[in-house]
Amino acid sequence: MKTFAFEDAAAGQFANEGFAVLPGLYSVGQVAALLRCIEQAPASGPNFRRSQEVFAIRNLLGEVP
Fold first, then answer.
1. Which of 1, 34, 35, 41 is the 20 to 30 A CA-CA neighbour of 24?
2. Are the C-beta atoms of residues 33 and 21 closer than 8 Å to each other?
3. 0.85 exceeded by the pTM?
4. Which pLDDT value is given to residue 61?
5. Which domain of life, per UniProt (predicted)?
């Protein structure tokens, strides 16, 4: 299993902005599988928000197995 450690830049971004971009964390296949799950997820629950411009899922990993 691959492990991931914050690099100094990512740790600094997280400390300053509350998030960090971690390139390469997921493989192309993992991202494609996640997108397929999102597209198939029922969007009628309270954790979903959909408009013409925005589609948001709160608690993404809880809503999309």
1. 41
2. no
3. no
4. 67
5. Bacteria
